[in-house]
Amino acid sequence: MRRRVALTAMITATAALALAGCGQESTDDPAPGQAGGKPTVCLVMKSLANEYFQQMQDGAVKHVQERNDLTLESTGTQNETDVDGQVALVESCITKLARAIVIAPADSKALVQVVAKAVKADIKVVNIDVKLDDGALQQAGVDVPFVGPDNRDGARQSGKVLADLLGRGGKVVILEGNPGADNATQRKNGFNDAVAEGGLTLLDSKTAHWETDEANQVFASMLTAHPDIQGVLASNDSMALGAIKVIQERRANVKVASFDNIPAVKEHVQSGVMVATLDQYGSKQAADGIDYAMKMIAGETVTGWQKTEIKLITKDNIGS
Amino acid sequence: MTAVTAPRVAGGRWASQVLGEAGIGVALAALVAFFLAFAPYFGTSQNVRDIMTQITINTILAVGMTFVILVGGIDLSVGSVIALCAVVAGTAMTDSGLPTALAVPFAILISVLIGAATGFVNGFVTERWVVPSFIVTLGMLYVARGAAQQYTGAATIYNLPPGLTRFGTATFAGLPAVFVVAMLLVAVAWFVLSRTVFGRLIYATGNNEEAVRLSGHRTSLIKVACFVIGGACVGIAAIIYMARLGVASPILGQGYELNAIAAVVIGGASLAGGRGSVIGTLLGACLLGVLSNGLNLMGVSDFQRTMVTGAVIIVAVVLDAYRRRLSVRLS
Prior knowledge:
The structure holds two protein chains of two kinds.
Chain A: H1 2-20, E1 40-45, H2 51-67, E2 71-76, H3 83-95, E3 100-103, H4 112-120, E4 124-128, H5 134-140, E5 146-148, H6 151-166, E6 171-176, H7 182-198, E7 201-207, H8 212-225, E8 231-234, H9 237-249, E9 255-257, H10 266-271, E10 274-279, H11 282-297, E11 305-307, E12 311-313
Parallel strand pairs in A: 1-2, 1-3, 3-4, 4-5, 5-11, 6-7, 6-8, 8-9, 9-10
Antiparallel strand pairs in A: 10-12
Chain B: H1 11-38, H2 45-70, H3 78-95, H4 100-128, H5 133-152, H6 162-169, E1 171-172, E2 175-176, H7 177-195, H8 197-207, H9 209-214, H10 219-245, H11 256-266, H12 278-297, H13 302-330
Helix pairs in contact in B: 1-12, 1-13, 2-7, 2-10, 2-11, 2-12, 3-4, 3-5, 3-10, 4-5, 4-10, 6-10, 7-8, 8-10, 11-12, 12-13
């Protein structure tokens, strides 16, 4: 009997300790969604285990400190695939009566239903990163503004540098992102635009799921099958790094055009193997989304696609 | 929620199960009290309904998993099979051209059949070649995921019948309709496990397979049946997923098998088989759901939430070990 009590005490104490150890943000809101007279904005992120999204979140937190006219509740899921978990996070934001939600959706269709629920609860919603599906939004009867970069135009610009360098008839391959992901499709379309405009010959186009090690394997077999490849159009820098490893190992004369401008590619842009990459200022995107959300709270109507800044990075402007 | 029900088979085990479920019930109550005090909006009726909706899928999967674990098996393929069921059933609804009233029952049938069929393969291979179900279902995890991707070409299916998605947000007597489905399933599973001969054979097989075989029962049939039941539950969960989210994607469900196993284990089941109950499983799923929801509302980051969830699972199995020693002394 004593042991039973001890066990119960143990589980209770553990749960309480574990919880008490967690950082707790402001819970003493004087009015719902209006902490200290400032409106509460929920930032719902995804893939926080990925440095890119972590930086986006950090950028937003810093930006909100500078603005100092809203309370930010920042949450997110660890994986891009945790759709269910992200829906639960949005539901929590609705429950907390946030004035606005800024969301980087884990899935462009699956989040539409809960976003519509938020809109109908009179919460302003701003979509960042990946655009929510137009058809699904229409079906749900809501209109949500999208704040984000033009991935297709960015990929076209990056691919054009490679096309200009190789000239007409240059032989290239594309490394695609996750099949079905909107930004992967947009970037692939942009590369295809550059291939068509520059008169390049496309030998192969395959996915490496955004990942370095997979790109390394995929590109190695591409180069074995087509030893005459002259250029790679990589849909992100992580995959470009995998391809560059193969190029260096085999001392092949292959140039790479890429996307993202992560710090790790700087040396390759300087050395000339990567002729272009594209900065879409990812760390600013959530902050931009919050700015639009605040405009909407102030009564402004924001609709459609609000394009954010992108910048082509080459050897000339990357610095040393 | 803290009702304690267990099959009255042997005195010692009965006592240990009461102890186990009371333990998890107390832990759940403590957690609820904590969040009521510290998590804003936790106790609102809207949030309670949110929690119910959020635990529905895991509860259904965990009920199926309880059957598998009771006979000493494990099913790691759940997260992939739910994706396969969803994309095939989803396509059946969007492409068959049937009216909603026919398309939805047709999709439910397909989904449950696919789930049951994968369960059958899992169970059959495990029993026929006497290999660990851990490995067989791990293989099925890959097969089903690949099949789901192959079937859809990695595309997400949407435009599901509005009737289905309305069901996903509908309420029934103030409760989310999908949660009511899960509760019905819990009730049926409880009845089967505690009030039927088949249920007793399941416990007996998990406890002492040899004795059940010697008394003239085909234990492999019982075990395969448990895998089939587990699979059928996955098929039901796939329909609930589509009703709730309005989409079916071949990448959905990653990690669901582990959530389901966690709910079963927190609910007091033994991975060695023979011990556990569907009420415990329900409480386990509630505990995980309340934990995740409450931490969300408190603004705790996902990383910390993951750590706390892991810690709770570890505490649960440590308690389980204590309880087992106690039950040995009691019997």
